[in-house]
Structure formats: structure tokens, C-alpha cells
Design goal:
alpha/beta, 7-stranded mixed sheet, binds pyridoxal-5'-phosphate
């Protein structure tokens, strides 16, 4: 299994050929055929088992049974949830990272890889205007980033006089991502939830909520979102930062989806205030065109994060011998980690950050054109002007089953993947544009099918 024998040679040829073909797909088809587990099992015919199988046979089973059972998130027709659109360069380098078995825990083990990751983190920090000492690490996703950041926020608050043994709380918007609620549950924190009429958290609404609260001293952090998942709304970050500062609260910005807009000049001003973040999450596997899984987690003061996340054990002492060494393990809840920032480093180096800005602008432009198209069709109604690449709209007169039926048929006909969402309790349609090759022609086709 570990030597280069004829079977290995055969696998190198056939698996790389398969990967090459996948890389050359342009555009990537949608796919996505659903089977139940028993059908998959029957088709896989006992794989894996106790005895070996010919690798080409196993690869064939993957190609014919398993791969079609996946909706390609990197297809320009994937317009649901938050899509993906990894660059070919990033995908290629991801293969190299896998083959290199890089143990991205510590400077001792992987200084070269970690240095490259840190250059990318610095580039993101610069876009956000975070000061020089800012830093962090790459984690698996926005959820892991939010959890790790709020662990630090809670710990910092616990160190305040009189906070010991108290149940701390976070001030969050009703539109914050579901991972924030999940994080608060894990951390046994409460929430002071702020609701606003237009779903955008503002400094004024935050201040009013805190002033009306009976127990402001139990608050640990303000969580703002730079690009809400459902509607792409960028909260009033400057206002939220000011309130956080006035009350001595940790300021966390969840930019897992929308943080990439920092690279797009047309919307950059909407992020003003992000430079005050104590922690900031941005998922390159969403809108910075990196492969899964890759989330950038940055702290204004990494030493605070280290004081919370550093794991100590006799077998780990050696990685902490040199205090100046940057160990990604010290900045999040993880130990072993893939050097998942490297594919982004490679792709950014090959293409340049300007190309990233242009590709992000393409989705923002498409969202605005789609909104105008919706506005021009009497049977449709735009719910709100898009801030970024997400467009929410309704088909006048439709009920939930009609949206579901429309979405099912779009997928069955391989036109698009566009599951309905909800807005203020009502089922609605939602475009999530991210792939720079999604076209207005496709948008029109989809809208025509609602007539
Ligand atoms: C704003 C926001 N935060 C957090 C997340 C969670 O990110 P992940 O799915 O990478 O854990 C998402 C995912 O869509 C998101 O949009």
C-alpha cells in the first residue's frame, strides 16, 4: 500500500487522468442524482470489502455511481445556499498539498507552508485594515472560525473583574448565521438578539438594545455580519464597532460569506468599521475561490487568542520552545490541521489579487442586473436591493409547494440548483451568485420558468 508498485503506477495514471478531466470541465455540469442508501450499496456491490479490488474498477464505481450523486457546487448553475468556484490553480495546488502530507500544526514542522499561509492572512488583514500584529490561522470553515473566535471573546470577558462564574452573553443580530447560535450553545452563552426592520444590524439598534437590557454587565461580545447568508446584508460595522468599544465588548465580524467583498472596490466602503474588529472570519472556500475547506480566522491581538487556544502537553513543549514561532494550532480549536491556506496562496500568486477583485465584482454586477430584470417582470417582486451577490425575490401568488416544484424541475432539467429560501416567514426564491461565469442568459431562463 505504501510502495510504488505496478498497482500504484496504475492508480497514478488513472486517478490523475480522472482528476485532469474534472479540472478541464468548463463549465462544470450540475449533476446531482439522488439515490437511497440501499441503491448505492447495490451498485457498489460490496465495496469496500476484506479483499482487494482492481483500482480501475473502484474508480469506475466512483465515477459512475458516487460522483453523479453529488450536485457540483462549482458549477455556474449552482445558485443555492452559498456556492463555490475554486480556481483551477487552487484546485491543482490542493492536490499537491494532499500529496505532500503537510502537517500544518507548528512552525517546527511546516515553517514554509505556514509562512505562505501567513502571507495570505496578512493580505486579507490589510484589506480589512487590521493593524500589523493581527494574525491567526486557517480553519475548516466559518463555523469553526466563529467558534474559535467567540471562545476567545468569552475567555477575555471572563477575565474581567466580577465575571467569574457568570453566564455571559453575546449581542447578536437576528440575521446572524446559524453557526453563531450553535457556538453560543456550545459555549453555554446567552444571546441578546437584536432585530431590525430591514434586517441590517445598526449601531443605533445595538445601543438601544443594550440600554434597554437589564443585565449589560453580562455581555461579552458584539457579533456583526459582513454579508448575511440569506440576503447578503452588510451590517453597520462602524456603528457596531463604536457600541462595542463604548461598552468594552469584544467585536467579532462574521464575514464568512461576504468578507471577500473587501476585494471589490465597488462595495468596499460598506465594510468601513471592520478595521476595529477584534476577530474576523472570511471563508476563501466561498467567495475567494479556494477549494473546500478553507476559512481565514484573524485576531487583532493574536496573543489573546494564543492564551486561550494553546494546547500544552509534554509532547508539545518542543513546538513552544521558541516563543516567536507562529504555530497555527495556537489560534483555534484544533491541533492537527491541513495547510489549507496553501492552494489560495498559489492561486493568488498566479493570478494576482486584482483578478480576484474583478471576479467578485462580476457576481455583484450580476446580482444587480438580475434585480433589475426581476423588477421589470410584473409576475415577480424584488424583496430588497442586493448589497452583494444574493438576490431574494418572490413570484407573486405562489405558495411553498410551487417554489419547491419549480426548483425540483430546474434541477431535474439540469438548468440550475436554486432551492427556495424564506423571508419573514414566507417562502421565496433566492439567487446566490458567486461563480464569475454565471450568465444573465441563465438568469432569464430561470425567471422565464416562473411565468
Ligand atoms: C455568514 C456565515 N457565517 C458562517 C457560515 C458557516 O460557514 P461554514 O459552512 O464554512 O462552516 C456561513 C455559511 O454559509 C455564513 O454564510
Amino acid at each position: 500500500m505504501h510502495s510504488v508498485d505496478p498497482t500504484t503506477e496504475q492508480m497514478i495514471r488513472s486517478v490523475l487522468a480522472y482528476a485532469e478531466n474534472r479540472l478541464r470541465l468548463d463549465p462544470v455540469p450540475l449533476d446531482g442524482c439522488h439515490r437511497d442508501p440501499a441503491e448505492f450499496d447495490a451498485l457498489l456491490n460490496g465495496l469496500p470489502g476484506e479483499e482487494p479490488h482492481n483500482p480501475d474498477q473502484v474508480l469506475g464505481a466512483y465515477a459512475s455511481v458516487l460522483a453523479p450523486g453529488v450536485i457540483s457546487a462549482d458549477s455556474p448553475r449552482f445558485l443555492g445556499f452559498i456556492p463555490a468556484a475554486p480556481t483551477k490553480a487552487a484546485l491543482l495546488f490542493d492536490m499537491l498539498v494532499s500529496c505532500a502530507s503537510i502537517q500544518g500544526i507548528s512552525w517546527l514542522e511546516a515553517s514554509g507552508a505556514i509562512h505562505a499561509e501567513n502571507l495570505v492572512l496578512r493580505l486579507i488583514a490589510d484589506r480589512a485594515g487590521l493593524p500589523d500584529p493581527a494574525g491567526g490561522c486557517f480553519v475548516s470553515g466559518g463555523s469553526a472560525g466563529n467558534l474559535s473566535a467567540l471562545m476567545v471573546a468569552r475567555e477575555v470577558a471572563k477575565r474581567r473583574a466580577g465575571a467569574q462564574g457568570r453566564r455571559l452573553r453575546a449581542v447578536v443580530s437576528a440575521d446572524a448565521h446559524s453557526s453563531i447560535a450553535s457556538t453560543l450553545r456550545i459555549l453555554e452563552m446567552g444571546a441578546l438578539t437584536v432585530t431590525t426592520g430591514d434586517h441590517r444590524l445598526t449601531g443605533a439598534a445595538l445601543r438601544a438594545a443594550i440600554e434597554a437590557d437589564g443585565d449589560p454587565s453580562s455581555l461579552a461580545t458584539v457579533v456583526a455580519t459582513a454579508g448575511t447568508t440569506n440576503a447578503g446584508i452588510i451590517d453597520d460595522l462602524a456603528g457596531a464597532a463604536e457600541v462595542a468599544r463604548d461598552y468594552g465588548l469584544w467585536f467579532h465580524v462574521d464575514g464568512a460569506y461576504g468578507g471577500a467583498g473587501l476585494f471589490a472596490p465597488s462595495v468596499r466602503r460598506a465594510y468601513d468599521g471592520i478595521e476595529h474588529a477584534d476577530s474576523f472570519v472570511l471563508d476563501p472556500h466561498k467567495w475567494l475561490f479556494a477549494p473546500f475547506d478553507c476559512a481565514a480566522l484573524l485576531y487583532r491581538d493574536p496573543a489573546l487568542a494564543r492564551s486561550v487556544h494553546r494546547q500544552d502537553a509534554s509532547y508539545l513543549d518542543v513546538i513552544h520552545d521558541e516563543p516567536a514561532d507562529w504555530n497555527p494550532t495556537d489560534y483555534a480549536y484544533h491541533l492537527t490541521r491541513r495547510a489549507r491556506g496553501l492552494p489560495l496562496w498559489f492561486s493568488l500568486s498566479v493570478h494576482g489579487a486584482k483578478a480576484y477583485g474583478e471576479a467578485i465584482e462580476a457576481a455583484i454586477r450580476l446580482a444587480s442586473e438580475a434585480a433589475a430584470e426581476i423588477g421589470g417582470r410584473s409576475y415577480l417582486e424584488l424583496i430588497r436591493e442586493p448589497d452583494l451577490g444574493i438576490v431574494l425575490f418572490r413570484r407573486r401568488g405562489w405558495t411553498a409547494p410551487q417554489y419547491a416544484d419549480w426548483a425540483d424541475r430546474l434541477l431535474a432539467d439540469q438548468v440550475a440548483f436554486l432551492p427556495p429560501s424564506a423571508w419573514e416567514g414566507e417562502t421565496v426564491a433566492r439567487f446566490a451568485f458567486l461563480h464569475p461565469h454565471t450568465s444573465m442568459d441563465l438568469v432569464r431562463q430561470i425567471l422565464d420558468r416562473m411565468e
